[in-house]
Specification:
The protein is an alpha+beta fold and 428 residues long.
C-alpha cells in the first residue's frame, strides 16, 4: 500500500473546491435501482467508495456510463438479480443500502452482512426493524442478510436510535410501498435530505427530510432524472480544520455554509476566524488556539466524522479539552497514532481528555480509518519534521484527490510507493 510523506510547518493558504458528498453519493447511487429510467448523477466524488458501490450496481446488471470525472449515467433497467456480490459488498459497509433499494424494486434482497468497523460494532437491528414494519421477513445466515416479502405496505416506524443508515434504508424500501410510511426519530443529516430530494426528483413523495419525522407516500413508478449531489460537509470541515491547524488562511469553496454551522461554531470558539459567503467559507487563524469541549451528536450537532480532525486542533490548543464521542463506542483508535507525534491524550471509553502541547513532532503513523487518516494528514502538516502516513487507502475512500488539493494549498505532501515489507525470511 502507498503512503504519504509530509514535511510539516507550511501554513495552508489559497483556495480549495469541495467535491460531492460521499455519504450522499453512496445512498443515491443504490437508489437509482428503484428507477424505471436512466438517471444522470452529477457532482459525484471521485473516491473509491463510489467506485465500489457503482461496481456493485454494474455487477447486478446496470448499464453505467461515466460521462466525465464527476458525472455518471446509470440505467438500472437491465438489473435482473437481487443478490449483491459477496466479494465486493463485504469490503464496504454502505453496501447495505442495496438491501433497501433491491427490496423496494424486487420485494427481495440478499446482501452480505456489513463488516464491523474500526470504531466498534455496527449493528443493523434498526434497518431490519424498518423492513419488518413494511411487511418484510429476513434471515441472517452464512454472513448474508436475506430480506423478502410478498408486498411492501407502508407503516409507522419509530427508530430506537437516530441512525443514518436505517433511515436511508427504510426510505429506499418505503418509496414504492403501498400506502404511507412515517419514520419517527429519523436522522437529519444533509445526506438524508439530499437522498429525499433525489427520490422526489424521480417522482417519489417524501416529505419532512431534515426533521425527525419523515413521511413517505408510496408511488407505483419512479422515472429517470438528472440530479446533482450536495457538497461534502465532512470534506469541507476537514480542510477548515487543516487551515486552522497550520495557522493558515484558506477559502473553502463549493460548500453549503449551513451544513457547516456546528463546525464553524467550534472553530470560532477555539479562536479561529470563519467568514461565510453564499457558497464558500474563509478560515483564518492568526493567534493561538483555545481549548474547547466537544460532544459529537447526530446532525445538527457536532458531527462524529469530524471528531478525529478536531482532536488534532485540540492537541495543540492552550489548555485541557474534553471530547465526548456520542455516536460510536470506540472512535479513538487514532489517539495512539497521534500520541506518537507528542499529543497528550488520555481515553476512557467514549471520553478523551486532551492536554494541549506547544507543537506536535513528526513521526511515522498509520491511517486507522477514513477520518482518522485525514486527521493524521492534518497532524503531519502542523508537526515539525517529516512524517509518513501509511494505509492511505482508507483516506482515498472518502477524499477526492487529497494529495493534489492539499499540495495546491501549500502542503509539502507526496505519495510514495510503499516498498513491500521484506518477509522475516528475506530479512535475515
Ligand atoms: C453513517 O454511518 C456514516 N456512513 C458514518 O460516516 C457516520 O459516522 C454515521 O452515519 C453517523 O453519522 C455513511 O453514511 C456511509 P448510524 P451509519 O446508523 O449509517 C447505532 C464516514 O466517516 N445503530 O447513523 O452506519 C450505531 O451503532 C462514516 O463517512 C444501531 O444501534 O451510522 C451508532 O451507535 C464513518 N442500530 C449509531 O446508531 C442500527 O441498526 C449511529 O449509527 C444502526 C445503527
Amino acid at each position: 500500500m502507498d503512503k504519504f510523506v509530509i514535511t510539516g510547518g507550511n501554513r495552508l493558504t489559497g483556495e480549495v473546491s469541495i467535491s460531492g458528498a460521499k455519504n450522499a453519493a453512496i445512498a443515491i447511487i443504490p437508489a437509482v435501482i428503484l428507477s424505471e429510467g436512466v438517471c444522470r448523477i452529477e457532482n459525484v466524488p471521485n473516491i473509491t467508495d463510489v467506485t465500489a458501490i457503482t461496481r456493485m450496481l454494474y455487477d447486478l446488471g446496470a448499464e453505467i456510463r461515466s460521462v466525465n470525472k464527476s458525472t455518471l449515467e446509470i440505467d438500472p433497467r437491465p438489473i435482473r438479480s437481487y443478490v449483491a456480490s459477496y466479494e465486493l459488498a463485504r469490503h464496504m459497509r454502505a453496501s447495505y443500502y442495496l438491501l433497501g433499494a433491491l427490496l423496494g424494486r424486487f420485494s427481495h434482497a440478499v446482501v452480505t452482512m456489513p463488516g464491523g468497523c474500526d470504531f466498534g460494532v455496527r449493528p443493523i437491528d434498526q434497518h431490519l426493524k424498518g423492513f419488518s414494519a413494511l411487511g418484510a421477513s429476513y434471515k441472517l445466515e452464512s454472513g448474508m442478510v436475506d430480506v423478502y416479502c410478498d408486498e411492501l405496505v407502508g407503516n409507522n416506524i419509530y427508530m430506537d436510535v437516530v441512525t443514518v443508515g436505517a433511515t436511508v434504508n427504510t426510505m429506499l424500501a418505503a418509496v414504492r410501498a403501498k400506502g404511507t410510511t412515517v419514520i419517527e426519530n429519523a436522522a437529519k443529516e444533509p445526506h438524508i435530505v439530499d437522498l429525499a430530494n433525489f427520490l422526489n426528483t424521480m417522482g417519489a413523495d417524501v416529505r419532512g427530510a431534515g426533521t425527525d419525522v419523515i413521511k413517505i407516500k408510496g408511488v407505483e413508478h419512479l422515472h429517470g432524472c438528472t440530479y446533482s449531489i450536495i457538497p461534502d460537509q465532512i470534506e469541507a470541515g476537514t480542510y477548515m480544520a487543516a487551515a486552522a491547524a497550520t495557522g493558515g488562511d484558506v477559502l473553502v469553496k463549493n460548500v453549503i455554509p449551513k451544513h457547516l454551522e456546528s463546525i464553524s461554531a467550534k472553530l470560532e470558539e477555539m479562536g479561529v476566524e470563519v467568514e461565510e459567503y453564499d457558497d464558500a467559507v474563509r478560515v483564518r487563524r492568526t493567534r493561538p488556539l483555545n481549548k474547547c469541549n466537544i460532544k459529537t451528536m447526530p446532525h445538527p450537532g457536532f458531527p462524529t466524522d469530524m471528531q478525529p480532525q478536531i482532536a488534532v486542533l485540540l492537541s495543540i490548543a492552550k489548555g485541557t479539552s474534553i471530547i465526548n464521542e456520542g455516536i460510536w463506542d470506540n472512535r479513538f483508535r487514532y489517539v495512539e497514532e497521534l500520541k506518537r507525534m507528542g499529543a497528550q491524550i488520555s481515553v476512557d471509553g467514549k471520553v478523551a481528555v486532551v492536554e494541549g502541547v506547544e507543537h506536535l513532532t513528526a513521526a511515522p503513523v498509520k491511517a486507522t480509518d477514513l477520518r482518522a487518516g485525514a486527521a493524521m494528514l492534518i497532524a503531519a502538516m502542523c508537526a515539525s519534521g517529516v512524517s509518513s502516513v501509511e494505509d492511505i487507502q482508507h483516506i482515498e475512500r472518502g477524499y477526492e484527490d487529497v494529495e493534489g488539493k492539499f499540495r495546491a494549498l501549500g502542503a509539502d505532501i507526496r505519495r510514495v510507493q510503499e516498498q513491500e515489507k521484506p518477509s522475516v525470511a528475506q530479512a535475515v
